[in-house]
């Protein structure tokens, strides 16, 4: 067992679930939630903070600020607490309450955006708030996960090589698309690898990341209401889009077999299932990345009647905004 003094020093990077038993699906699921932040976002957070320290952007009195739907906010809360920084997370009303409480327990401030931007949705509103905050006070240091190359480099250096070591004959990799840091880091790595790997991006219906029309989305993490700046579609071989109801269904099927994963994982596994069913090949070596675990989703993904009741609650507000 390792002995650590910094929470970022521990991250289980070699755990996979063979989904043939749980879902009769020829897919290996790389589990990224076993660290002190509970998600894959610890890698990007660590990389971006380390780069800001090397570049001299973080000074005595600096306050880290970031826009996050949840998981990166928790990861930065962990790192900020361990290194003595103050941290403000700007999130929105779709963020799970347990996630907000977790960030606050770690000593972070959380600002919740309640009204979406007319054109950029909740993400656009969050970004506007962060920009205004940084313009008003130079103590704030915005890591900007949406443009920060440390976001994808973290996965180029860690996530993708770990998969390549474990599966030297990998045929296809399924990666969820949020900021696209994980997607781009893995895609760039395998593009340079000696063996061709098909990269399949998985996105939520309602996300604009790949040029589709915007729509309502309730599961935080995957998808975006503003096109991701890090995305280079030339590295992506295929795209699968998933309805949130399908993602919820997959999460609950996995939970029925004892595997409690987050909503993003349900989305990725649902997308992989669609793709594998379409191609019908059982001899492929296929891996999907599971960004987090499911404890923070007990009041949403795992609550009976969700997301139908949440969508019903959103409709009057949406009609009022359009009026």
Structure description:
Mean pLDDT is 92; it is low at 319-323. The protein is globular, with a radius of gyration of 19 Å. The strands form two sheets. It has a six-stranded mixed β-sheet with strand order 1-2-10-7-8-9. It has a four-stranded parallel β-sheet with strand order 5-4-3-6, with helices on both faces. By secondary structure, it is of the alpha/beta class. The chain has eleven helices and ten strands. The protein folds into two domains: 7-34 and 150-297, Rossmann fold (3-Layer(aba) Sandwich), CATH 3.40.50.1100; 41-142, 3-Layer(aba) Sandwich (Rossmann fold). The termini are far apart. Helix 7 (159-166) packs across helix 8 (181-192) and helix 9 (244-255) crosses helix 10.
Outline the low-pLDDT stretches.
Answer: 319-323
Q: How many domains comprise the coordinates? A: 2
Strand tally, please? 10
Element-by-element helix/strand order = EHEHEHEHEHEHHEHEEHHEH
Number of helices: 11
Secondary-structure class? alpha/beta
The whole-number mean of residue pLDDT values reads 92
CATH topology of the largest domain: Rossmann fold
**If classified by CATH, what would the architecture of the largest domain be?**
3-Layer(aba) Sandwich
Going across the major beta sheet, what is the strand order? 1-2-10-7-8-9
Sheet with the most strands, sense and barrel status: 6 strands, mixed
In one word, what is the shape? Answer: globular
Q: Whole-number radius of gyration? A: 19 Å
